[in-house]
Amino acid sequence: MTSVAWFDLLVALTAVERLAELVVSARNARWSSARGGVESGRGHFPAMVALHTGLLVACVVEVHAADRPFLPWLGWPALVLVLASQGLRWWCIATLGPRWNTRVIVVPGLPLVHRGPYRWLSHPNYVAVVVEGLALPLVHTAWVTALGFTVLNAVLLLGFRIPAEERALAAAGR
Q: Which of 69, 106, 144, 165 is the most buried (most CB within 10 A)?
């Protein structure tokens, strides 16, 4: 199997992981709604979906269209970062349990979580997103995708998503 085929498989497995996240998120959204959860920040959600889908598509397109090489000195460390980001993401999901969601849904009366990675960071899931968004394309030197996703993700996270979460938590008294 060529390095490009391995990369395509890695991106496909990442897409399957995203689908698993959506299943967990839908289940957790139902749990939150049943407990009076309030959703905030709906306006930026379609952009998030488009950006994350675009990351996966752009990784494959750039590697194939620009004939990007696999450079071991870059690719192997980037793969380690991709795997570490997946570990951090699922640690966040496990720590928040039914409260984790791809949307901003706050259940009234529940305290903030201060265990797991939330002991050290307010938004550790976004650390995973940032690391993966940079590292996944660089596994096969798709540097245009890595740069583009990183910039657009920073605008989305810092300009919309994190402020929406902070406002929602503040409105719930947390």
A: 106
